[in-house]
Amino acid sequence: MSVSANMEQDVLRTLLSEEQLKQRVAELGRQLTEEYRGKDLLLVTVLKGAVVFLADLMRCIDVPAEIDFMVVSSYGAGVKSSGVVKIVKDLDIPLKDRHILIVEDILDSGLTLSYIKQMLENRGPASIRIVTLLDKPARRKADLKADYVGFEVPDDFVIGYGLDYDEKYRNLPYIGVLKPEVYSE
Ligand code: IMP
Ligand code: MG
């Protein structure tokens, strides 16, 4: 089975509804507003999955904040498990003495993000924390914890609200579990 004309047909079940996402993102926004009041906040997002979360979250954070993006790619199958990545597009904004909040869609093995976090730490920020919408702790390989988590999720392959399978379903407005037959074809 390949991707259907109607995205809904490929969703096994809804994991998080639009309403659940909206409420939790607003809560996170309120919490982050308190944490970063009076601090020079820079939101850093690794493209592409977290763009939907970022777009909603940033409008719920009521302190001045800048945003910046980075694009990375794995070096290849052989080193993928190490999490070592190549920077395809680096951040434009220097991190020195800034309070950095990495905005992530889902924390899975954590290998890529732990590598990126270390790389950004070397640039001398005042602080560096992670907010992830979804956390799959069962799959963690790297010694990495998010500072703020939207939802803990089971080890299912999920799509929507920015998350993709083969670059598709990012525009689904809620988070669903993908039917296994879609990716095991
Ligand atoms: P990690 O380095 O294994 O933590 O990789 C995390 C990345 O894998 C996320 O940013 C997603 O792009 C992708 N990913 C992991 N699990 C899922 C999932 O269930 N659905 C969609 N993408 C996922
Ligand atoms: Mg992805």
List the helices and strands and how they pair.
Blueprint: E1 11-16, H1 18-35, E2 41-46, H2 51-58, E3 65-74, H3 77-80, E4 85-89, E5 99-107, H4 111-121, E6 127-135, E7 148-152, E8 158-159, E9 175-178, H5 180-183
Parallel strand pairs: 2-3, 2-5, 5-6, 6-7
Antiparallel strand pairs: 1-9, 3-4, 8-9
The chain binds inosinic acid and magnesium ion.
Describe it.
This protein is 24% helix and 30% strand. The chain has helices at residues 18-35, 51-58, 77-80, 111-121, 180-183, and strands at 11-16, 41-46, 65-74, 85-89, 99-107, 127-135, 148-152, 158-159, 175-178. The termini are close together. The model has no long low-confidence stretch (mean pLDDT 94). It binds inosinic acid and magnesium ion.
Task: Using brief descriptors, characterize the structure shown.
185 residues, alpha/beta, binds magnesium ion, binds inosinic acid, three-stranded antiparallel beta sheet, six-stranded mixed beta sheet
Number of strands: 9
Oligomeric state of the chains present here = single chain
Helix content: 10-25%
Strand order, main sheet: write it out: 4-3-2-5-6-7
Task: Give the DSSP E fraction (strand runs of 2 or more residues).
Answer: 25-35%
Number of helices: 5
**Low-confidence parts, pLDDT < 50 over ≥5 residues?**
none
Cofactors, ions and other ligands in the entry: inosinic acid, magnesium ion
**How does the major sheet shape up?**
6 strands, mixed
Radius of gyration: 17 Å
Roughly what is the average pLDDT, rounded to an integer? 94
SSE sequence, one letter per element? EHEHEHEEHEEEEH
